[in-house]
Amino acid sequence: INAEYGEGAQSPMERCSGERAGGSMTTRRPIAMERIRRVTLLLLLGVSAAQPWTPGLPTGWESAPGSLAEFPSGCADPWLYSDRLGLYKMLIRSTPSLHFNHSEFNNPLWGLPLQFSWQHDTGRLGGGSLAILNGSSWWGNMNYILSVLPVLAAQHAGLISNQLRIAPPPPHAAIGCTTYAECLVDFPNATSKWSLFMGLVSAGELDVEGAVVHMWEAHINSLHEGLPAAARLLEFLPSSQEAEFGVSWANLAVSYTHLRAHETPEHLVCRLLLEKKKKS
Known about the structure:
By secondary structure, this protein is mostly helical. Helix content is 49%, strand content 4%.
């Protein structure tokens, strides 16, 4: 547990049954411990990233929990890879009005677990066993706002049972709101956009284009508010190039707010490159 979460960390079950560990989210560790964590994260990323990434269903999708009953004591720990993946699974299953052409694979939310799985498979979440997400992982914290916030918004809209609880974050995590009310304070724009989106989903008022537009608004607001919240974790990435890549990845999405989408019979196709080509 200490190797994955940090010194003095609680186990996942302890955190599910207890209070937020580690005190204030802004508390900083002594410099020596920060350096140890940085070196450890570098080694973990270096080993994991050597594995090639292949697209397909998210790694571990079949075995991930997908209902309230499958989470122990109704508590999901988003700092366990399987549990965060399970939150995505529950989210997709709970939004049947987005299963366009009668297939859950046409749900635009599918992009979120696929991106999360890529981060996992390329070692960017910082867990040595790849089962536990490191609280100091910049990628893991940025993804938190794209996983837990949508789930809490779906809960708020009545799509997911209010009995589902989110475990407190481990020490050193920069992002870790666990209730809708907390996230509305920490990330007001992102939470409001996800709430609007999920409310429309619940009412069954979205066609495919409307779903993509509202989801994209929630997505870019999540990144916009997540970037400053997770900024202090950039120094723990293994290189300046990786930090630059991560910030560029997020800023690219935030910058292209004019992104549009088009549905084919098979899947949703991004038209960003086509629009750019037309303007050139």
